[in-house]
Every structure is written in structure tokens, then in C-alpha cells.
Amino acid sequence: MPVHLYGLPANLPALTEIAEKAGLALVEDAAQAHAAAIGDRPVGAWGKGGCFSFYPTKNMHSLEGGMVSTDDAELARTLRLLRNQGMEQRYANEIVGANVRLTDVAAAVGRNQLSRLGEWTERRIANAARLTAGLKGVITPVVPEGYRHVYHQYTIRVPEHRDALQAALTERGIGSATYYPTPIHRLRPFLAADGSPDPRWELPETERAAAEALSLPVFPTLTDAELDRIIDAVNASIEAL
């Protein structure tokens, strides 16, 4: 179950090969990656299914809800049954399902949002390029050749003083966020019985990434002046730390 984190596709060619050799179903978590792609093949079209989120914080939304993409007709029918109380015809329940259909209002919002997704995506990509060109003293996102990163988040890595940089940006009126600050293996369900870190889980790179990541504004309505203000604030803050 690869995650296209922040809008950058996971290494789907390699993961597809692994899944095929092992006889596994590949299910894509594309919640943050609407319109992302590798070459001319979009995310959501590589595995058995692709899961998209339409929550309001995503690159497009329908107030709530989501979508599953698949080219498997049998799976598509099962999903339709599951979302509609297990039935295609009223009172002819075939399986145990739930009522998880989008409302008509949510669908209408989603259709309107979808009509603007292309424009918004190009603007996010342009904003990200401007940030990458101007930022200094931090590690900017790396996009493999042929990959289309749609920048749900523009996330830098700050090897030292990440929290201090965030505080300095806040003082300058620049919003930022640290997503997933606690690695999964440090959460309560994965700790030892006494609450200490489980010695079976040694993931130093995961912990380093969680301690260094910081997301900066990249939303499509940012102006050039606002982008320059973000760049200047980051560079000045890094120089002062």
C-alpha cells in the first residue's frame, strides 16, 4: 500500500514489480496526489485500486468523501455494493454494506472543483519551482525524472533547528506545519508493554525525517510577492539561527 506523500508518486514501477512477483494486490493511497503521474500514467491507475480523498484540505474537495479508482469490473461492483448498503436494487441486499455515498451537494461541489484542478495543479507546481529556486540552507523536495509532483504540501527538510525555524517564521507571520511529527512506530500501539520504545523497531531514517520535515505554503492563490516574502523569511531565519 504505497503512499504518494505530499503529492509525489511513490516508486510505482518498482513496487508493481514486487507485487506481481509476490502475488500481492497493490493499493495506492493517492489521498494527497490528485493528478500526479509517472510519465503519462496517473496515480490511481497502477494498482488494483487507487484511493483518493476529497476532504477540504486536499488539492480538490467535495466537502467530504473520496473515490476509489480501479479497472477491475468485479471490484468496482463490490465497491458500489459496499457504499450502498450492499445492494444495487432497493431492498435486494447482496452483501453487508454501509451508507457511504456522496450526497448530491457534495458531488456538485466536487464536479466544480474538478473543473479547476488542472489550473490549480499547474499553479502549485509553479509556486514550488519558485520556492525551490529561492530557498537556501534547507533541503528542498527532490522529484525523480519523469515524475509529476502535485505539491499537496511543499515540504523541506531542516537538518538542524527545524523547530526554531518554524518559530521564527511564525514571528514573521509566515505559516508552516510539521505533519506526522511522531513516527508510527513511536505511537502507543507499537510501544512495549511498559510504554517504552519497542526494541524491535529501530528506524533511524524515519525518525530523522520526522524531526526535519517542515511544510511551507504552496497553495495556488499565492502571489509572487507572497512567495518572495516566504523565501526571504526562510533565508533570513536560517541565516540568523
TrEMBL record:
InterPro entries annotated for this entry? DegT/StrS_aminotransferase, PyrdxlP-dep_Trfase, PyrdxlP-dep_Trfase_major, PyrdxlP-dep_Trfase_small
Q: Which residues form the signal peptide?
A: none
Supply the name of the protein. DegT/DnrJ/EryC1/StrS aminotransferase family protein
Which co-factor is required?
pyridoxal 5'-phosphate
One Pfam family per UniProt: DegT_DnrJ_EryC1
Source species: Nocardioides dubius
